[in-house]
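Morning. Coffee machine broken again, so started the prediction first thing and wrote up yesterday's gels while waiting. Chain of 338 residues, entered below exactly as on the submission form.
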Amino acid sequence: MAVTIKDIAEIAQVSHTTVSRALRGHSAISRDTAVRIQQIADELGYVPNSAARGLKSSSSRILGVIVQRIEDPSLGEVIDGIEEVLQAEEYSLFLAASHHDPEREKKIIRNMCEHRVDGVIICASQIDLAQMQQLQQLGVPAVLVNNQAKETATPSVCHDDEYGSYELTRHLLASGHTVIGYLGNAMAGKANEDRLGGYRRALIEVGLPFREELVFVGPNGLAVGGALAVEQCLRLAQRPSALVCFNDMMAIGALQVLQKNGLHVPQDCSIVGFGNISFSAYVTPPLTTFHQPKREIGREAALLALRLLRAGANESKPATKLLRGELIVRASTASPAG
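Came back before lunch.
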């Protein structure tokens, strides 16, 4: 059931008029009272009545899409897949970036609801079950793409990251590497855990120990994150002969640092990325990586959102859809020297 001004007034212990004026920024309401009422409204997932009536009575044929960063190269193809489906159905796309800020993300969702989007697709966020329930209270169907929360929230579309990292590590093992490092992303949540888990499983499967000292964590998934992580690796007396990187951008950053330190890839150190972003094939050497079907992920997310919009009250809601990519072998990996 949608949250009303009456619900907010009861919790705030003020009149309906005070709540209404506070939410409209009326000068008669003190700043402290207005802030407190707005916080209560946010916690309850309140949508202004005019928007709520519009959502119930008609379709805007607009879907909101929230990403972490607009410039993320891995998200471009996901958005292309979403847009491909929406255009065929004569839907428009309302795009916004949250920049890894949960509060900003909440404001974006509220703003999208007030602008009467029919549904929301949220990419690479950390939305848990409680937050998903709050979204449902807004009356706007939401689909998660590669959600990073530890607990599963549905409906969602995600890539099998554990399998991808497992296949990358198996490739290095098959090439003869026995000392393999992992460059992780401190901001990635579940994706980093899954990729670290695939790396660990591949090592243990062939009887090699999982060594914590060979796990290096960068502050983010950008090239600079990979550069900072591999600098930790270079301080070791015995460096690994191969590196599994969280993604292609971190691998490219690591590649540059290795080359600046006089190391040759793959002769001195093999390196693999993850994602198969468009320019991973154009660095020197071209990057071995795991291809994520990004466009297909976007298509599936859009189709799932449209299914939710068309679902009847008694129709079962779709759960998680898991997609798998494939290993792409290029020139950044080879057998270890000697």
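The longest helix spans residues 294-310. Going to sketch it on the whiteboard this afternoon.
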